[in-house]
Amino acid sequence: MNAPATRRSSAGPFLAPVLLLALMWAIHLADALLPGSFTGWGLRSWDPASLPGLVLGPLLHASWMHLISNTLPLLVLGCLVAVEGAGRFWAVTAVVAVVGGAGTWLLNDPGTLTVGASVLVFGYFGYIVLRVFAPGPGAHRIAYAAIALIVLVLYGTTVLTGIFGAAAGVSWQAHLFGAVGGGIAALAARRGPRAPREIRA
Length: 201
Fold this sequence. Notes:
Elements: H1 3-11, H2 15-33, E1 43-44, H3 53-56, H4 64-82, H5 86-107, E2 113-114, H6 118-130, H7 141-164, H8 172-189
Helix pairs in contact: 2-4, 4-5, 4-6, 5-6, 5-8, 6-7, 6-8, 7-8
């Protein structure tokens, strides 16, 4: 009787990236069906009024092809981050969105509008690779190294091209600072949870 509950609990963390991806697809479907465009809610560089785009920008996409191209890597890399738990996945996502968005907002040409989940994709990549060097207490360094090696083989060339050889109209800033945000999240995770303080009456 306990087996189904065990399967549900073990699969639980992976629901987080699936839900995030489902939200992106739902938003883009609504954008396609409703008049106007949601992309105006993205991150517009040097415009303080667009700062909500730090959160909204990664959820928006310029086209179906844009969304489709981000779907598989976000799902794969997001699930690898979620191995450490849904809480860790959402924390890494938040750090990547803020750091990646801030770098993009500052370094892109003023008025440039940036949307898309690639900032998260590059952030998850950076997190997974840097986690090898900051595994935290009780972590299995060999397991992290094996995962990072697989990720490097699968996505390393794409990441380098996305940063140093990005095509016109593609934000290398979002790619670079997304990866930086992932690295920062990995270093922050090294500390692990704080031990509870002793309380004396």
